[in-house]
Amino acid sequence: MTDSSSATWLPCGRHRLDISYPRVMGILNVTPDSFSDGGRHVALDDALRHAERMLAEGAAIIDVGGESTRPGAPPVSTQQELDRVAPVIERLVCELDALVSVDTSNPRVIEQAAQLGAGMINDVRALQRDGALEAAIGAGLPVCLMHMQGEPQDMQQAPRYDEPIEDAVAGFLAARVAACEAAGLRRERLLLDPGFGFGKTVEHNLRLLNRMDRLTALGLPLLVGMSRKSMIGKVLGRPVEERLAGGLALAAHAVGRGARILRVHDVGPVMDAVNMSWAVLREGCEHD
Ligand code: 9MG
Fold this sequence. Notes:
Layout: E1 9-12, E2 15-18, E3 23-29, H1 44-56, E4 61-65, H2 78-96, E5 100-103, H3 107-115, E6 120-123, H4 132-139, E7 143-146, H5 165-183, E8 190-193, H6 202-210, H7 213-216, E9 222-224, H8 230-236, H9 244-256, E10 259-264, H10 267-286
Parallel strand pairs: 3-4, 3-10, 4-5, 5-6, 6-7, 7-8, 9-10
Antiparallel strand pairs: 1-2
Helix pairs in contact: 1-2, 2-3, 3-4, 9-10
The structure holds 9-methylguanine.
Residues 65, 69, 103, 122, 124, 144, 146, 193, 195-196, 223, 225, 263 line the site of 9-methylguanine.
């Protein structure tokens, strides 16, 4: 896909991830209530088989989450979250040698996941919970800082912003990067995510996607997640099980706007969309 001389490596524990070209992160929700695949991967063996398939289809990372962040989702206890994610992370690392990202905001889950061999932290609350920043520093892993307005329980109740959405998101992420650096978390370890669907209307999401240059200007790799989200449902009038084509269009668009990691459910088809979009971009670069 690229020649190794132009590689940009992100150190992720036992793994190194080349993000000089767009990579796909497969979603493995181990919650009984996740919005689009809830309940299907709760059983450990099922979860492992699903992850194995996503890796075979080209996923570079498996994102394991034990607390649903869908709109309206209730919080879970630390023990519940650990009981859900720890055995899955352990087996993904030991049996599949997978690069695992842990989708959590909980400092104890961050610590335990790192001990079990996870290689990345994906925090939709951008390390704002008490102790999360310290836990991430201790883990020594890259962290994805995401923008969210509100909390999952209420974030979609008439979200509004007093400034253009891209300024609000860029301002928040820049402040979180500064807070992380001030606490001792190295900038090279950070990724940024606009948080599509997290306290945003469909108009906010579409504008944010068009204005991703505001976020790439912050100089850190961008991760995006739009897979099967309601922005697709609202634009196309599709239920969650019919959002693949819309998601592929968004994935291709996000690559064109600078995204380097795409968090998705449908790894195989998204790989094709991403690779096609990247081929077009690279051809364009040759003529610059
Ligand atoms: C956990 N989760 C659900 N949606 C997400 C998104 O868009 N980005 C990230 N980083 N995590 C997400």
